[in-house]
Design brief:
heterodimer; A: about 475 residues; alpha+beta; D-Amino Acid Oxidase, Chain A, domain 2; Arc Repressor Mutant, subunit A; 8-stranded mixed beta sheet; B: about 425 residues; alpha/beta; FAD/NAD(P)-binding domain; Immunoglobulin-like; 7-stranded mixed beta sheet; 5-stranded parallel beta sheet; about 20% helix; about 35% strand; globular
Chain lengths: ~475, ~425
């Protein structure tokens, strides 16, 4: 591998990987660096998994533009990249007649932003659509273009597609310095250095730190933590749309939504913190999630919780996406402050940033580019005859490893062997859902560890939960240590 | 594919049910479907002894206990399929998948549900904190140590004093780990007294009652947990926090019967047990589908699982062999004060072939109390018991002839003296 590139992208979250995929259309050499062991390890892995319609952001803002364009692009992207997605629509629910004006304001904003199909629903129609909506519900803003997506597959698929078109990825590689040099930039990562003509900063909660290495205009990100609770799939049908409360200055509030895989998700809270890397779930947060979600939806079976988690949003003090070439550092491009609706916006951000970079470097399109990328084969989403054929050609697709989500050995092997394949338990989990069900890996994790060990050719006790020093085991029982 | 009886699960319940069905009528074709790569279920990883005191009058390890059943299968002509996961159950039909057959359906005369239970995971306990490596359910850790032969931790805190947690406190200690404490949310242990003595007291491992874990620290691997005392509503009391340095947290906080298949088959579930509602024959609300073992209600002794499952297997065999349908009276068994649930909860006295065994658990700890059973007027049983705890299953036995002419419910209760 040469250490000189046309473009280095810092960060392998949805934003970095969407840019990488778009740039892979051009004849150029691209490297993506990430401090973690895999793609999708920061903000991209712990969020609501919502494709927003686009009525929230201020008209004219980049957030508004990227949201609406991202939502529009998502429809074809999910087909090209085989991403679980359902366009179920969203409802912003007003539970206090005196706040009805807020719903109308959102409607007007949505119209100004170019959001299609918006409608204000009165209580009877709302109740018909959502029988479990709060008795206090007065009306709601209905946005049919909102949807739910698997954020893991979105991120992983963007990366896989970029990879299959020649983009290189390096993991466990934290950027410690960026220096302007005559040919462009020197990107320093501990003991190694990589040169590039252009650097794209998509470093999520660390994007301000990366930016501040090269610019005299300083940015500041406040990580905003949000706690969530994920409920068992037996709760499916509780709500049929993404249910939001009316937004506040801290965000879109605590939502209740089905997930792309049929669970119910409630959350998030919004708590500003100074820790960019750790997002502990708090008892207080979980209590607020329960309380907040109950305001809009009645009878939420919170005892059916299968896991709680917490994510960090990269909130820049200005509250707007910063998507531009840094004014005092030509050739260095920022994607800073990518908080919600960042997941929705990522295809649009990818398109936009790639066009800026392509112009800068006068890049030419490749003669051949493959934008299609298939997910791990899922025998239990196939027709009977397809499944029978798959199992007879590869019997490992008939051996269930994860009982709760019905995930086979074949799927786990594929998740490890494919480009940018899984190297940890969490990597397998995000690619296949093994361990994501109601027993949370109690039964399957020892088996997934065995498969990882066998496929990667490493000892069982070197398998990690998510890279670094997150090893699961401490050697053999009878070893002297 | 066709079988007279399909037994779902080849653990202790499934083995006993299959054997007893085949014994009752050797002409029946009995098929066990097991999702793991061997029979025996959780017994395979229970390498400690203490199994079989009631059944065989000797102390066996888990694998020894299982092998006593497994070695009978061939002689009885019982078939089994391993690495086979059942996907769907309905009256007279079982759909499953494995590598050889792909997805296949077995039509059958009767089904015995023996899927066992799973452990309540961290996520379902709402334990705050980070999500590093080093948080395991006790049973997963037991598998890693006893089957895989690896150490999941060196300095361990255990939350929950269920039997698996107690057993693992001893196991980890014997393997050289330091078990710093076992914390229990309730003011009493959920495990058997003998396990508290043999697994904690004998190794000087403290059992800290009325405490829970309120924080897990460590970004990549657990570095410590914070425990706190809880009040009578199980809420942590501010100011009582203690941080314990450790690399591992084991959870033994309850077992959940695995009834996803049962629910999908519209089998009525008892919310107190999370298992099917069954009658004296262990038949569920769907005719021809029977349930026994930990999928029915969580047991503390495998001997009782075997005994109960033998009766369920026999009932299933009788169901397939005879064309008679019951027309006798159905009597409800209700839970009085102090009783959380009973199994069975319905009895048809005409269908009993011997005495009725009612198993139950208490709602709390009772000292110097009475177990009362009443029907048709005055108490039929009023038995003194020194101590009754939720961790130890209780039973009462009623004679068939006493039940033949009763009206109204049978009520099981605990009264304090």
């Amino acid at each position: 591998m040469s250490d000189s590139y046309d473009i280095i992208i810092i960060g392998a979250g949805v934003t970095g990987c969407a840019i990488a995929r778009e740039l892979s259309r051009y004849a150029c050499k691209v490297l993506v660096l990430d401090k973690d062991e895999d793609v999708c390890c920061g903000t991209s892995k712990a969020n609501s998994g919502i494709v927003h319609a686009g009525y929230d952001a201020k008209p004219g803002s980049l957030k508004a533009r990227m949201n609406v364009r991202g939502n529009e692009m998502m429809i074809s992207l999910v087909k090209e990249l085989d991403i679980p997605f359902k366009q179920i629509g969203s409802l912003v629910v007003c539970t206090d007649l005196s706040l009805r004006g807020g719903i109308e304001e959102l409607y007007d904003r949505g119209i100004a932003n170019g959001v299609p199909g918006l409608r204000i629903l009165e209580a009877p129609e709302l109740r018909e659509l959502e029988p479990n909506i709060s008795d206090d519900a007065v009306c709601a803003l209905y946005a049919p273009t909102a949807g739910i997506i698997c954020p893991f597959r979105l991120n992983i698929a963007l990366a896989e597609c970029a990879c299959q078109n020649g983009v290189e990825f390096l993991f466990d590689t934290a950027v410690t310095g960026v220096e302007a040099i005559p040919s462009g930039f020197k990107v320093i990562t501990g003991s190694s250095e990589y040169n590039a003509s252009v650097v794209v900063n998509a470093a999520g909660c660390h994007a301000d730190e990366i930016h501040n290495l090269v610019s005299s205009v300083k940015y500041h990100i406040t990580p905003r933590r949000g706690d969530y609770m994920l409920l068992d799939r037996s709760c499916e049908g509780l709500v049929n749309h993404v249910i939001f409360p009316q937004p506040t200055s801290l965000g879109k509030g605590i939502l209740v939504t089905p997930t792309a895989h049929g669970n119910i998700l409630i959350g998030p809270t919004a708590v500003d913190t100074d820790n960019r890397d750790e997002a502990p779930v708090t008892a207080d947060g979980l209590a607020k999630v329960i309380e907040g979600s109950a305001k809009n939806v009645k009878g939420i079976p919170v005892k059916q919780v299968i896991t709680g988690f917490s994510g960090l949003r990269a909130h820049e003090d200005g509250g707007e996406f910063i998507l531009e070439e840094v004014s005092d550092c030509p050739g260095f491009f920022d994607c800073v402050g990518i908080e919600s609706p960042g997941l929705t916006a990522c295809p649009a951000v990818g398109e936009y940033m790639a066009s800026l970079v392509a112009d800068k470097l006068s890049l030419l399109p490749k003669s051949s580019w493959n934008g299609i990328c298939h997910d791990v084969k899922k025998p239990f989403e196939m027709s009977e005859s397809e499944r029978a054929e798959l199992i007879s050609s590869d019997p490992s697709y008939g051996k269930i490893i994860c009982r709760c989500e019905t995930i086979t050995e074949g799927e786990i092997i594929d998740s490890i062997r494919r480009p940018l394949g899984a190297r940890s338990l969490d990597g397998v989990k995000r690619r296949t859902r093994a361990g994501m069900g109601r027993c949370q890996g109690g039964f399957c994790s020892p088996r997934v560890m065995e498969i990882l060990s066998r496929e990667l050719g490493v000892p069982l006790d070197s398998i990690t939960k998510n890279g670094g020093s997150s090893k699961i085991l401490f050697g053999r029982t009878k070893d002297e240590s | 594919m066709r079988a007279d009886i399909v037994v779902i699960g080849g653990g202790p319940a499934g083995l006993a049910a299959a054997i007893s069905a085949a014994r009752f009528d050797p002409s029946l074709n009995v098929l066990i479907l097991e999702r793991d790569n061997e029979l025996g279920g959780i017994l395979n990883q229970c390498i400690h002894n203490g199994f079989g005191l009631h059944t065989f009058n000797e102390e066996l390890t888990g694998p020894e206990y299982a092998s006593r059943f497994e070695e009978q299968l061939d002689g009885l002509g019982i078939n089994y399929m391993l690495n086979t996961m059942v996907l769907n159950v309905s009256s007279g039909s079982v759909t499953a998948v494995n590598s050889n057959e792909g997805v296949f359906t077995v039509s059958c005369g009767a089904i015995v549900l023996c899927m066992g239970c799973r452990e309540r995971p961290r996520g379902a306990l709402n334990i705050p904190g980070l999500r590093p490596a080093g948080v395991f359910t006790a049973g997963t850790a037991q598998r890693l140590v006893n089957i895989e032969g690896y150490m999941p931790g060196r300095e361990v805190v255990i939350l929950g004093s269920g039997d698996i947690g107690l057993i693992m406190a001893r196991r980890m200690t014997l393997e050289g780990a330091i078990v710093k404490a076992v914390c229990e949310l309730m003011p009493y242990s959920g495990g058997l007294k003998r396990n508290i003595v043999q697994c904690l007291d004998d190794f000087d491992i403290p059992l800290i009652l009325s405490h829970t874990v309120i924080d897990i620290k460590g970004k990549e691997r657990v570095t410590s947990v914070v425990i706190a005392k809880v009040d009578s509503n199980s809420k942590p009391i501010p100011g009582t926090e203690q941080e314990i340095a450790c690399d591992t947290l084991l959870l033994s906080c309850g077992l959940i019967p695995e009834n996803e298949l049962s629910r999908a088959a519209d089998i009525k579930i008892n919310p107190a047990t999370n298992g099917p509602v069954v009658n004296e024959s262990f038949e569920t609300s769907v005719p021809g589908i029977f349930a026994c073992g930990n999928v029915l209600h969580v047991h503390d002794l495998v001997d009782y699982v075997s005994e109960e499952s033998s009766r369920a297997g026999k009932s299933a065999a009788r169901y397939v062999s005879s064309s008679n349908t019951s027309v006798g009276a159905e009597i409800r068994i209700s839970t009085g004060s102090g009783v959380r649930y009973t199994v069975p909860s319905i009895v048809r006295p005409d269908e009993l072939d011997s005495d009725l065994i009612i198993r139950f658990r208490s709602t709390g700890v009772f000292k110097d109390s009475y177990i009362d059973v009443s029907f048709n007027g005055p108490k039929k049983i009023h038995r003194r018991k020194q101590i009754i705890t939720p961790g130890e299953m209780e039973q009462v036995i009623l004679k068939k002839e006493d039940l033949l002419n009763i009206s109204g419910d049978i009520c099981v209760a605990i009264s304090e003296s």
